[in-house]
Design brief:
This protein is an alpha/beta fold. 43% of the residues lie in helices and 19% in strands. The protein starts with a helix and ends in a 5-residue tail after the last helix.
Length: 319
């Protein structure tokens, strides 16, 4: 009888921290790390989600941009944080799927150093050029690049980013030579594109600049045309058979409590169903995902295998 009572007390002691956690979380601001510079698609999604989480959780969610090395620097810092729910990461296909095949010293394991919370969305890349450009189609770019090799350049958010890999795929498929110019985020790259310092970009976050008339879309790297750009053909329709998109998901550091993961997953699923969020994401060209933590975990593992082939075929060098 004493043994049974002692085990019951041990069970109560074990449960107390969980009960306290559920009653008090969150009781201070939450930091949402974005391993890219401000202004790009990742940053836009983070600020949208951060504001919505602030409302649903009743505390400030502060977006913290830590750019560099194709998202690797910010992610390296994130995995060292406590898994207490006060530091979140907006992970991307660049860091957690392509990164292991692009960096010899990544500094984190793309699977075991993370707790997967929810897959938020995916966005296809769009070939964009400045509105002053003479190019009006992918065919124009290919023809000029074949006639003048190593003359033109394309920008990206950094080595290993979706823009870099999409550009490398484009080069491989069309047999053209264009120069890659990496930046610390797609925001700075897009600014230089608008200014005419680079010639093109295959980007996920340029719809705002397209709508304001600063950039011209030539083709969408998706299986079908997207609602945000119904008049823009796909790459395949334009004669280049390729598909390239980026995905975005919310993560916690490894070994986060199950209750915390479920709480954040529930909040995020509700946020992704909000009409205002759905409209904003559609305007970005995003396809909303959602689902369970397990579904995100399995998806991330599948993507890790898929990107091994994508990086190899793209010809992107190991850094």
């Amino acid at each position: 009888m004493k043994t049974t009572f002692r085990r019951f007390l041990q069970f109560l002691i074990f449960c107390l921290p969980l009960a306290g956690w559920s009653d008090t979380y969150p009781n201070k601001p939450i930091k949402l790390i974005v391993p890219w510079a401000a202004g790009g698609a990742t940053d836009q999604i983070a600020r949208m989600i951060g504001q919505a989480l602030s409302q649903s959780l009743g505390t400030n969610v502060i977006v913290d941009n830590k750019a560099g090395a194709g998202g690797v620097i910010g992610t390296q810092g994130f995995v060292k944080e406590k898994p207490d729910g006060y530091t979140l990461l907006l992970a991307t296909s660049s860091t957690n799927a392509a990164g292991p095949y692009l960096y010899s010293k990544l500094g984190f394991d793309p699977v075991t150093d993370f707790t997967h919370v929810i897959l938020i969305c995916s966005i296809p890349n769009v070939m964009v050029v400045p509105t002053k450009s003479n190019w009006n189609s992918l065919k124009d770019i290919v023809n000029d690049s074949l006639q003048h090799p190593n003359t033109f350049s394309y920008g990206s958010a950094g080595v290993g980013g979706s823009q870099h890999l999409a550009g490398a795929q484009f080069k491989t498929i069309t047999h053209i030579n264009i120069n890659h110019v990496p930046y610390k985020g797609s925001g700075p790259a897009a600014q230089d594109l608008i200014a005419g310092h680079i010639d093109m970009m295959i980007d996920t976050g340029s719809l705002g600049s397209i709508k304001s008339g600063l950039l011209r879309p030539l083709a969408v790297a998706s299986f079908k045309r997207i609602a945000a750009l119904p008049d823009t053909p796909t790459f395949k329709e334009s004669g280049v058979d390729m598909v390239a998109s980026a995905w975005y998901g919310l993560m916690l550091p490894a070994k986060a409590p199950h209750e915390l993961v479920e709480r954040l997953n529930t909040e995020m699923n509700a946020i992704l169903k909000r009409p205002d969020i759905k409209n904003k994401m559609t305007e970005m060209g995003a396809e909303i995902a959602g689902g369970s933590p397990l579904e995100f975990y399995r998806f991330a593992q599948t993507e890790l295998k898929r990107y091994e082939t994508i990086v190899k075929d793209s010809g992107a060098p190991l850094e």
